[in-house]
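MODEL INPUT / OUTPUT PAIR
PAIR INDEX: 1
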Amino acid sequence: MVLRIISIVVAFIAFVAYSSLFVVDERQKALVLQFGQVADVKEEPGLAFKLPFIQQVVRYDDRILSLDTMPLEVTPLDDRRLVVDAFARYRIINVVQFRQAVGTGGIVTAESRLERILNAALREVLGSVTSNAVLSTDRIELMTRITESAKIESKGLGVEIVDVRIKRADLPTQNLAATFRRMQAERERMAADERARGQEAAQIVRAEADRKAVETVSEAKKEAEIIRGTADALTTKIFADAFGRDPEFYAFTRSLIAYEQSMTGSNTTMVISPNSEFFDYIKESEKE
């Protein structure tokens, strides 16, 4: 009987000791609550103690956590609506303040409130710029502004916003077709402008080439006429010199040339008086 009582006592003591001890993981922070109020904070990893049956332990993750927000529709300055998909990284830095802010809701309640804070920051920052800024490399600066704004608003939750990133910023589905048509019309207009400028440039080049061709042909004809005139003058001079030196020989030579040119061919027919001066040298050769 005594042994049974001793066993019960030992078991009770072991149970009480087990209920008094708890382990704080290095990835966690723990709160010791007594009747719903914070009695102690355990931030260092290792073995810790609490009052059995009276106190309870609530653990919170000490790592950096991620929060994916629902797609949000924002309206930038140019009224070109965008659907923004963002996410945030945060960590709990003050577990007492965090517990007081979210109560028993824990991470779920905290992330619900953080999402509202992030959505408000997204609307405020992205609504102050144009859609081109959101879709360009300026997005990095915008994300920094969103992060700073969310940090200020989330201080009361006992958490710290580490970073906010925009994963996607697209046009709403109903606006995509109209936007694509507008982009296509703009590209077609630009292509038509380029073709018109190309045709204008081609016409200028063609006109310049035609002008140069006419100038070149005219210059060549001019030079040819000058050369031909010089040659004719030289020929006339040679004939004149020849006539001046021996008029009879000159007349004889010209007559031979005339005979050759007029009597070529096998069916040449001439109707002329035999006593014409044209046959003077022929008649003289017959006399001889």
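PAIR INDEX: 2
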Amino acid sequence: MPAHNKTYNSLASAIREVFSYISRFKGQLFVLKIEDTLLDNPAFPVLIRDIAQLHSVGIKILIVPGTRNSIDRQLRTYELDSSFNNGIRLTSQEALPLVEQASLGAAQRILSYLTANGINGIQGNWVQARSLGVVNGVDYMRTGKIERIDCSIIEKLLEEEFIPILPPIGWNKLGHAYNISSTELATELCKYLTVGKLFFIGEKGGIQTQGLTRGKLTKKLVLSNHGLISALDIQQTLEILKNNPQLSHAQRDYLENAIKACKNGAKRVHLLSGIAQGSILQEVFSSRGNGTMVYANEYWNLRPATIEDIPDMLRIMQSYVERGLLISRSQEDIEAKLGDYVVYAVDNAIHGCGALHAFKNHSFEIAGIAVGANYHDAGVGEAVVNFLLEKAKSKKAKKLFLLTTQASDWFYTFNFKDGTAEDLPKEKRDSYDKARNSKVLVLR
């Protein structure tokens, strides 16, 4: 296949993926906790522009500004000390007005950037809080805990296409203010609102695998192009937390709150860098993304193929057919043996497929292995083949075979060995295309 055709196929595949995600996420609510360390970064206006683009395609946005850096700077200006206990700031009565000023200032700066992009943002506080009080002998003074969030106003603003901005300040019933955690606020919103995605956006983003101790559940994690863990389910996240006490407070806090958010109802939680240009768009409109995702629902989904999957399966197979890697199949061919096929679906988009055909004497053929153009290095093919191998074991297969022209080295990694046409079942041997001269590989 000419190089330009490969480029066009890859581009077309990426465009299809973007359109599928736009239709899926339109009308959903994304909650974004944005660390204030990003506010002075040259990349911040680009991040806000990308957020404005999400808003423009019908995704509802709610922003919670992180304020730790702004508060620290404000307190230093007035030469006030600030201490922490277990990562929680101890807010004195004297410091509270400065904490409020810093928090509202961070929210106002985000609002200004949204306005510059033609977006109607609105800053408000609809959070009822109470004092944390004294815990294990530590007086948290004017640091509070969320009691309730008044979501009726927030929902109305979202319906009117505003982007609400909630600074992490709460009030009690007497009108007394409390400093609250922005991470806790973003997580708690998932309990009160129907949240499609929660983003924790900072400078460092996702979780690097380097230096991590992995366990049984996290031994084979899929990585992004930047060496980050691409996705974790809740059980894998718990294993990472248990096995890696050396994680920074911020990483541990985000992972722990990601678990809480999923349990509160968020479908997915993303740890993302706000510095890399286009990172939030890639995370939203690509199943591979550019950060670390924590999820409660099933993400990678190898499942039996359905009739509705056949057009996508044919599309994925087509480039393999053009390169002579697969024989051509029609819709009728696949439909006739549909029960043999499985697909690798991410968010219901098909990115890979394969089949396990049964023959006499407990012989089975692995066939039709194909992976979408943008997912060749994402472990999709390996996942499909391993799934089919397990399926063959469950059917008490005595021999597995396959025919290949150019992928024998790849199949050797699954312990297939070179065979001959004599190793094929008679039915398959009789239809063997000598002109094609495919290699026969066998696994007993």
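PAIR 2 NOTE: The chain is about 35% helix and 25% strand.
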